[in-house]
Amino acid sequence: MAQEKLSNLKLDLSDYGQGQATISPDYYNENLIPVPKAMKNWNWINYSTIWAGMSHNVVAFELAGLLTFQYGAPLALFIIGFAYGTLLIALYLNGHIGAKWGIPYPVAVRPMFGLKGSSLPVIMRAAVALFWFAVQTYVGGTLIDAVISVFYPSWESLTANILGMPAHLAISFFIFWFLNVIVLFRGMNEVKNFELIAGPLIVVTLGGLFAYGIERAHGLGPLFTVTGSATPAEIGLSIASMAGVWATLVLNIPDFTRFSKSQKDQLIGQAIGLPIVVTLFSFIAVGITSTMSYIYHIPSSEALKYVNPVNIMYLFTGNQFLVLITGLSLVIATVSVNVAANIVSPVYDLIALFPRKLKTWSVSAIVAAIVALFYVPQLWYNNASTIFNLLNIIGAGLGAIAGIMIADYWIMRKTNLSLVDLFMPRGQYWYSEGINWKAILVLAVAFGIPIIGFAIPSLSPLYDYGWYLSVAVSLLLYLALNKVKKY
């Protein structure tokens, strides 16, 4: 009887000019259907503040710091600005589908991959989002560890190995992981209230530290004298790697833009948020790192020890109170970013993969948080080369999906969709038993080409431009296989 009742689900699409329809329960969940127009109330300020919140990102700070150690401030800023500026184009193009049709990413890829085939890009994105959750959790643990070490130097004497970490770091790691779990149970409203204080506090403390460093260096000029050497291939790899930092959001953005009042709101908000606000935070990170390198003559071989902002604050000031304020602000902000940016997407993905079993946000979120532990970031994060290689590989995989989405939605479908067919077996997006094998093939080829470049040194240029190359290859190949068919 329950199954009979489920087989007659009504979907009201009148807000989108497509009337009402009866759909199958197999691909339905209330979190996946187009949001009513009454819920599309986000304006450009909302999107700008979301990016402002996500810019308080310790991993982004540390990556900017590593680039500064490797290349110097001028080139590091160019790499960051170029990567984030070009990502804005893809963010707008993929954000359009959410703003126009009110659907999240797991549904937005159904027209390209098929109702069943969409599980592959959904799983890929979920895996990457959980990767970032694991990374942010580990880095958050290092923040707690650094603060405790400043107040209690004997804390670092807890050196027993626990899961590949000294005991003091392992305890800090699980404290931070548990803070995330608490937020998952209590909801985001409370942590967002903390972020209203923590966000500006981070800008004030790190901005103040930057100003203090400039004063000690006697102006900005000396900071830009610290330079490094780089080949065009190394610069290309670094740009592609930095693109990989936000490659998940390029796919994930419909999860947020589905609530946008208009296309103009999501475009303006993101144009302010990513290339301006996030780059500004990176500028502060680059400036602080360059100041530290100039004043203390720290070699690049020691970079990973000196890109933690808590350690930098203590090195510059020796003030425990400022260290505590910086550490607590960053911990609160990192929890907020970790939950908002890294759990929202896999929760939608898990619900899309198991719509009948994982029906609530909280259950899916807890499952995601537990699965993330298996990424064991403590075993590889402390190697700068490994970090940038992982970012580039991630960017290549997600870039292949982004290219297919852009080609199908913008060029072939001219931004038109049949919403009812997004939930109906045997409908327009069913293809071959629910799978569009052309899209699967394009994804494999576009992702595989950079991987070949990674595996074969003589073909390394294929790898150096990971995200950008995979976007271009997937877009062009998808159009070629479909002969630019228009729907």
From TrEMBL:
Swiss-Prot/TrEMBL keywords: Membrane, Transmembrane, Transmembrane helix
Pfam families: Transp_cyt_pur
GO molecular function: nucleobase transmembrane transporter activity
Main subcellular localisation: membrane
GO CC terms of this entry: plasma membrane
Record InterPro entries: Pur-cyt_permease, Uracil/uridine/allantoin_perm
Residues in the signal sequence: none
Compartments, record wording: Membrane
Annotated membrane topology: Multi-pass membrane protein
TM region(s), chain numbering: 44-69, 75-93, 122-155, 167-185, 197-215, 235-253, 274-296, 321-348, 360-381, 387-411, 439-459, 465-481
Family: Belongs to the purine-cytosine permease (2.A.39) family.
UniProt cross-references to PANTHER family, sorted A to Z: NCS1 FAMILY PURINE/PYRIMIDINE TRANSPORTER (PTHR30618), PURINE-URACIL PERMEASE NCS1 (PTHR30618:SF0)
The protein, known as: Allantoin permease
